[in-house]
Amino acid sequence: MVLFWSTAELIFDINFIIQIILIILLVIGVTQKQTWKYHGTIMGVATISMLITVLIIMGPSLGANMVVLLLFPTNPGSIVTIVHVVFGSLALILGLFFTIRFLYFAISKRPLICGTRIQMRIQIAIWFLSFLFGLIFYVYYYLI
Ligand code: HEM
User: How far apart are CA 84 and CA 90, in angstroms?
Assistant: First the structure.
């Protein structure tokens, strides 16, 4: 399609834009820690949005390209995709874990501290790495 002058279908350009917005949201969520309620809500919204894009865009694309990944796992494109999917899945699982804890603590009126500082830093690093490999994927397949 035409966004970014890429050869991607429109849905993948849209996904790319959504992921950029989510990364911005993530940075806002990380820097806004005056109240854990605000921080947790932003991170929860980003995580649920990421889940939706995985379910309706990236997951189906992975399924459609699974045969290529299995037949040519050492292709540069396949390696980028596999690394992206591993980091992305980890980011999703950890994000959902913290989001569920956040909701549970909020409902049961407990302090909203759902993880330690180191756990949160690991989560952010994994999310960024996933985005980085998604970006490499986009450049490799649609821009060059
Ligand atoms: C932190 C979580 C994630 C981020 C930030 C992220 C980001 C991105 C970005 C920026 C792209 C390039 C745009 C595009 O081609 O659509 C992409 C593509 C892709 N992602 Fe993710 N992603 C995440 C999680 C996942 C997960 C969990 C999966 C596994 C199902 C996955 C599978 C894919 C696939 C297969 C593509 C290629 C789509 C295509 O055919 O163009 N991603 N991702």
Answer: 10
| Residue ranges of domains in the chain | 3-143
- How far is Cα 69 from Cα 82, in angstroms, rounded to an integer? 8
Q: How far is CA 68 from CA 9, 19, 88, 124, in A?
A: 19, 24, 19, 30
- The whole-model pTM stands at 0.94
Q: Which of 84, 86, 138 maximizes ligand 1 atoms within 8 Å of its Cβ, making it the mutation to test the pocket?
A: 84
Q: What does the pLDDT look like over 25-69, one tens digit per residue?
A: 999 988 876 788 889 999 999 999 999 999 999 999 999 999 999
Residue 20 to residues 37, 58, 133, Cα–Cα distance (Å):
23, 15, 13
Rounded to the nearest angstrom, the distance between the alpha carbon of 84 and the centre of ligand 1 is: 7
- In angstroms, the Cα distances linking 96 to 49, 93, 141 are 11, 5, 29
